[in-house]
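Retro notes
What went well: the complex prediction finally ran end to end.
Inputs used:
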Amino acid sequence: MDIKVSSQKDIDSLVINTIRFLSLDQVEKAKSGHPGMPLGASHVIYLIYDRFLKFNPKNPNWIDRDRFILSAGHASAMLYSTLYMFGYDITIEDLKQFRQLGSRTPGHPESWLTPGVEATTGPLGQGITNAVGMALAERYLASVFNKEGFPVIDHYTYALCSDGDLMEGISYEAAAFAGHQKLNKLTVIWDNNHISIDGDTKLAWSEDVLGRFEALGWEVFNVEDGYNLELVEETLRKAKQSDKPSFISVRTHIGYGSPLQDTAKVHGAPMGKEKAIETKRRAGWSTEEFFVPEEALNYSRRHIELGEEREREWSELFERYKREFPELASELERAFSKDWSTDWYKELPDFTEDMATRKASGKVLNILAKHIPTMIGGSADLSESNNTILKDYPELEANQPAGRNIHYGVREHSMGAIMNGMAYHGGVLPYGGTFLIFSDYMRPPIRLAAMSKLQVIYVFTHDSIGLGEDGPTHQPVEQLPSLRLIPNLCVIRPCDANEVKVAWKVAVSRKEGPTAIVLTRQSVPVLDRSMYPSEENLEKGAYVLKDTGDKPEVVLLASGSEVHVALKSAELLKENGIASRVVSFPSDFLFELQDDEYKVSVIPTEIKRIVAIEASKGNLWYKYVGRDGLIISMESFGKSAPGGALFEHFGFTAEAVVKKIKEKWF
Amino acid sequence: MDIKVSSQKDIDSLVINTIRFLSLDQVEKAKSGHPGMPLGASHVIYLIYDRFLKFNPKNPNWIDRDRFILSAGHASAMLYSTLYMFGYDITIEDLKQFRQLGSRTPGHPESWLTPGVEATTGPLGQGITNAVGMALAERYLASVFNKEGFPVIDHYTYALCSDGDLMEGISYEAAAFAGHQKLNKLTVIWDNNHISIDGDTKLAWSEDVLGRFEALGWEVFNVEDGYNLELVEETLRKAKQSDKPSFISVRTHIGYGSPLQDTAKVHGAPMGKEKAIETKRRAGWSTEEFFVPEEALNYSRRHIELGEEREREWSELFERYKREFPELASELERAFSKDWSTDWYKELPDFTEDMATRKASGKVLNILAKHIPTMIGGSADLSESNNTILKDYPELEANQPAGRNIHYGVREHSMGAIMNGMAYHGGVLPYGGTFLIFSDYMRPPIRLAAMSKLQVIYVFTHDSIGLGEDGPTHQPVEQLPSLRLIPNLCVIRPCDANEVKVAWKVAVSRKEGPTAIVLTRQSVPVLDRSMYPSEENLEKGAYVLKDTGDKPEVVLLASGSEVHVALKSAELLKENGIASRVVSFPSDFLFELQDDEYKVSVIPTEIKRIVAIEASKGNLWYKYVGRDGLIISMESFGKSAPGGALFEHFGFTAEAVVKKIKEKWF
């Protein structure tokens, strides 16, 4: 192959083709993957990295870097090729291991695995929404920490997305939110290639996408001549100047230059050796696999030096900032290292009054917020119900960017992914509330938070039929156990106001994954801890609350509001001459972290009569009660009626529990 | 109260106020509910029922009725008042029982409970999307069954929605789909009251909603003077003429006429007796509770006669149609009574070739489709992967409305709710496919299908780490057990091509709820049924596949692709001198419907060593294996690698299974 690089155009073309064909080779070697977008859109990612992105490939964690998110995660090969070319810690060997066990180049980008990957993407619509969260975190931190002459937080967020990203409802929610918030440092580029997996996007999609984004308050740009590099670059530059979030349509062709160009066939499967070679030949490219022209690498890797230089400049700025504003600087550093304060804990009251656990949560949150200045959050239009309002702080709005109360709107799904974006960005501790039932609307981002080890806190209130009249559409039945099934999601359902304190303590301490705090709508008794073991035991997931005799014959396990049913049941059993043990069991996640000795001390092997009481689907409790155990649970949907009437109707009373126990065993 | 009804205006006003104050009284009596929208939007629902809707209150199941869906289900009191006024089987006593245990007037509308309620709504965005599904079903059936002079299916669909409905991403997806499909007989009215639960919608929402709908291909109308009845009526009339779906913004005021007008306080809580009386006084209304002027009732209940007349006319038309087109007529009748054919079953091949269960599903589906002419469906942009294409039938498109292959686009959430809408409508049997992992995007409508007893069939392929290289973002781990937790959802995970046949048989026979068929991406062996019990046993949920000795010491339970791991494990155990039993366990839902005798015959109480093998989160299996059982499952997220390598890596091989069994018990 004859390489000439006499102009910028030549070198651009050389690096772009290197990215394209490295991606093609990855897919071909793995015999698996998506060649279409890399062939068609590599010039866009190239331009962003080469001309726009502020980054230091040798320190992908530099806090003031620009962020780039490949929302169309299926084009992962393109991202890995780009990261390799631009000097990140990715080798050709890594590229050759694309989609293989143990590699750093998995099928879809995984944030925890690959240097330079800002977000785990693939499930469509998530990445673009993460980008909104990142831009929001940037603006918040900039507003709080920057001082005149000290723009210590000052960066841009770019997302490259596909047709599919834009069809998913979550991306509409995110775009509406971003438009409302006027997140002007966000640029989304649409790889407008007219092809989705099923074929031409016209099969299912005929909207005016740009018109829609315009209606959402974005500045929109249409680059019809999508391979005109000057035009794309100029448009990206204009977008950067906008006072709104920017949306750029770049008309591309999937599988550009290949025999399968403009067909769905090239979207998600290797094209085969023959066609791959043909594609390279058409481009005048070497047919050598994983071929990297030295000139290309030399050019793109100058970003190593550039990046180090840029970070150095920033570090010098930050050193001066530190001297001028030592407290702010230290606060910022602590925030990015997730060094959240623990001072607040001693400030929490000992709750003595009966109250809904959601209410206790609101009180705790408000104390916490004073000590963790970058904890920001809100609710999907249920802030009062969820008790998520930080009373002493303003709303976070476009004209009030240092506010701390976020109104997500009725948009649970994007709330979840925006929180993920904020956690990816770092420096803030995001929390968000909705009714537990609507956790169903946001399962995809919850799962991605758990997978990507993001510290995000969910406040899920109205946790059972106890919420009452709103009825079965609003009463969670399967949501609590369904959340417990998500790996690395810590689910906690405290039984009273004091356990709520410890739940928050766990959530704030737990930095390697999300925590869901599940709370009642209705008031529940507060346990007098002079008579019961300390609420601190919540950290162990489950603990003995009470034995009503030396040799309990029955163990009652319960969580949340049902702990009080269990306590009453134990009293009633005692009146019937049956000694029992009551275990408060707020979190199987935390309990499973304990050693066997502790577990057996809570649920002794020798006691065979074990009962679980929880107003949710009961299946998960078999693990603890065994096949011969008794589970008092919700096996159907709920009903519309006052909460108390429903507890009675569905058998969550001491009388009903004891009756069942006696029928079964005594 | 002095009642004058000298003009149409007077009577309109009288009925509207009756609806408003009956709703207010319901909420006040229940001390729970949402008075704001009924006070502000009753004139809209009144106009629709009085001037537009074709209905027979005495037969809410008349198939050619117009459909009205209250997407803003929280305004249920308004719907109940309306149904009462217009002659449905709802009494004042029912209204007085609003939100009480056992009543027919629950907190949010429940389709199975209340005559005239077309869809279960409340979770926002669902109702408007159901309406899209209804309009789609109507157009499909009209296209297939209507003949010149015989418009036997010819009706309109109306949905009344709130700000919250429009903020939810699902409603964007549905609107994009409806615009693309040009569903011109659909009219959505937006109760544009500027207030959501958190306060002014401006807190979170500043988009140009009409501009957005226009971009989506809708005809949009803006009624600023929202209480001008003539104007609202005229606009509804124009909307009916449009060749696009219509979206009408009606500017209203939440809590109209009350002391709390235009505040969030009146959205979701009773205003208290004093304010309620004050509101009535301001309107010159009687303060008597549940007051219904005779003149109002007489007027609105003339629809009883009108409706009967209309249905009679239709019945006469249908009788003539029957004579002219007896086969079509009978087909239509059977379709609406869900009398799906069973003829197809004997046409299914005995599969003898190894294949992915998704592939077998595609083959079965294509045979089925010939026998069930109103079975229509598709996929969320994965039709080839999901094997959901009906090969002999065209696409269902705006210009091809009798097509049967629906391209939902990358819109799983709305796909779920559109299917629900079609099932509510009746006459069609909807199915829809996506990857199992993306069932997470559509949990809210799956739940509502289960709750509302809708026959909907989900085809969930790529069911485990077996899908391979796409990696953890695409590999279901918790999805299978999470779906199993939804009450009244029948989940089936067949082990081979022949079990797939029976899974479809169950799904088509099961009319009182949805069925999810969970299928592999990768090829699996087909069991030679001359050596194993019949696949028909799948109907029992679990059955003995093989005993490797007279007295099995170990029972191996498995589903789907892991059944083959279990069979190999049993062979290996036998070589080790250990007799075992292999149980194919495709559906705990179906198994739990069996009697104890059968259950014990499959998993004998006397065998204590029980093993479950399933490449999903394992917690649900404790029910069957007990606390001392062995569960071989996925307790973490997956990895990106070829499927075979992952099965080995995560221990789903006979060698690994036997090793664990021996370590534990032998």
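What we learned: DSSP finds 24 helices and 20 strands in chain A.
What to try next: split runs per interface for comparison.
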